[in-house]
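Appendix B, example 12.
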Amino acid sequence: MAVTILFLGPLRDMAGEAAREVPGPLDWDGLLAVVGEEVAGQLQEARVNVACRGKVLADKTALDAQDGDEIALLPPVSGG
């Protein structure tokens, strides 16, 4: 099985794809390694959130995704 990473909003443009499957399990360092340098840089910003199994992580560096899990990379929301 694999872990599915969903790239949302402008992160999708940076990644060049909407989703990517990678081997699990996946921790924070592993996530940074597989998303590419530009997306990894954005993920390290406090305003970008990470959700795993449908829940936004309070501490994204504590990511512990297992086979079959889905990770969503959530850029900051702007409103008007």
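The chain has three helices and seven strands. The chain has one domain: 2-74.
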